[in-house]
Every structure is written in C-alpha cells, then in structure tokens.
Write a structure and sequence with these properties.
Elements lengths: L2 E7 L2 H7 L10 E7 L18 E7 L5 H19 L5 E4 L3 E4 L2 E13 L2 E10 L15 H5 L5 H17 L7 H10 L6 E6 L2 E10 L5 E5 L2 E4 L6 E5 L7
Parallel strand pairs: 1-2
Antiparallel strand pairs: 2-3, 3-7, 4-5, 5-6, 6-7, 8-9, 8-12, 9-10, 10-11
Helix pairs in contact: 2-4
Bound molecules: biotin.
C-alpha cells in the first residue's frame, strides 16, 4: 500500500493538489496526524483531534466523476465501519456522510483535480475515531463514543484503503444496482425533508430515492424531481428510514 504519513499539514486534500506529481499514483494515500485547515463540503471546516482521529486522502485516477466517486467511497467506508459498529443506527447520508443516529461520524470530500496526464479525484476522508464527544452539542460522534473501545488508527486506515480498492475495481457509471442497493439498505436520507435550490428557486420536499446518476429524487408540491448536484440540497430534518 502506498501511504505518505505527515505529522502536520493544512489539509491532506490540498497537499495532494499542490503535489501534482503524486496524482498519477492510483490509490496513493496521504494521512496527517494534524490538519491545521481541514475542509469539508460547502466551505465548512473539518476539525479532528490530533492523534485520536483519522484524516487522510486517497488518489483515484481511473474514473473521473467526483460525484460517483463520492457514492462509491461512502459505501466503501461504511462497509469497514460496520465491522467495528454492529448497529442499525449506523447509516450513510447522501451524498457521503456517515452518521450514527443523529450524529456525524465521518465526512468525505471528493474533489476533481487536473494534473499533467489528465484528471483525477482526490477522496478526502475524516473519521472521528478515538476522540470523545459526549456532552458536546455539535452533532458529532466518534467510534469510541459508540463502542467504548479504542480503535487502531493504522489498521482502520488500511482497511479503508483495501475497501476502496475493492469497490473501485468494479467502478462503473451510471452507478450499478449492487452499489445503489447497498445505499438503499443503509441510508438515512430517504424520508428526510430537504430544501432543494434550483435556478435560485427554493422548494421544500421529501427525499424518495437515490439514483444511478448519483442524484436523489425529491417529492415536492410539483411532483417528483431529481436534484442536479450535491451542493444544492440542504437537509434540515433527519429521519432514518429504509429505502423503498
Ligand atoms: C464534510 O464533512 O463535508 C467532509 C469532510 C472531509 C474531511 C476530510 S479530512 C481529510 C481530508 N482533508 C480535508 O481537508 N478534508 C478531508
């Protein structure tokens, strides 16, 4: 496994973006003990506790579709976390967060980057592992909070890298039923109320499905429509449900 370990960096995703010569190494992973400017989707910060949590990025340069890469990566991480946490409360939230109940356990940020030989996707993964969040009202939770046991970060990192390799071996787009069904069986998005912004118009609806083009279907007063991209949907109520 090709892993670069850094003591500290601003963001493992940004490190890879700067080190463009590394981007032809498929599945190369950069892991940092400390991120000083960890990023989430929609310009949010990603805060992790040095030495206790896992923050790393992975290069994926075979299929260039960051939204599909997100869907696959979410499923790959969920497969591993399920080995540690055997509870139906562990769910994946579209497009790629992992939740336990109402609290966030893991965030994934996929970014498409151009390099000398073409394009690749940088998959950035942050998991709250051994940090403690009890009593915090920020909506985060860790593996430790759930299982009351410390988890080996090296092992978890390697297991996720193997899971990513395995799932991406069969990468295809549109996303095939095998992956979609994993999502449908394990998501907490279907049944949620969302605000969907399309052409600057906001509409409120309920998520009814997850589709092979990575969109979700939303039922609003005009009927069912599918979302166009990840960033124009705001979840404002979580209601875990099984897919139909
Ligand atoms: C989100 O919750 O919106 C995504 C969070 C992604 C965090 C990871 S940590 C490793 C990588 N480096 C970053 O700066 N972000 C991702």
């Amino acid at each position: 496994m090709n892993i670069i370990r850094l003591d500290a960096v601003d963001s493992t995703n940004d490190y890879l973006k700067r080190e463009k010569n590394l981007l032809t190494n498929n599945f190369l992973s950069v892991r940092a003990d400390i991120q000083t400017a960890g990023k989430g989707r929609n310009s949010r910060d990603w805060i992790s506790v040095p030495g206790l949590d896992l923050t790393f990025s992975v290069v994926y340069n075979t299929g260039v579709n960051p939204q599909a890469a997100s869907i696959y990566a979410g499923a790959a991480v969920l497969r591993v976390l399920k080995k540690y946490i055997s509870s139906d409360d562990l769910k994946i939230k579209w497009p790629n967060d992992i939740y336990f109940g109402d609290s966030k356990l893991c965030g994934i940020l996929c970014e498409m980057v151009k390099h000398d030989d073409g394009f690749c996707v940088i998959i950035g993964i942050g998991i709250n592992v051994n940090s403690e969040h009890a009593g915090s009202d920020k909506g985060y939770i860790s593996v430790f909070d759930i299982i009351s046991e410390e988890t080996c970060l090296d092992l978890l990192h390697r297991e996720i890298l193997l899971s990513l390799r395995e799932i991406f071996t069969d990468f295809s787009y549109p996303v095939p039923d095998k992956i979609l069904n994993e999502w449908r069986d394990n998501n907490c998005s279907i049944g949620c109320e969302v605000i969907y912004i399309c052409n600057d118009i906001e509409s409120k609806g309920t998520v009814t499905g997850i589709n092979s083009d990575c969109s979700i279907s939303v039922l609003d007063s005009d009927g069912i429509r599918t979302t166009e991209c990840f960033d124009n949907v705001i979840f404002f109520e979580k209601k875990a449900q099984k897919a139909v």
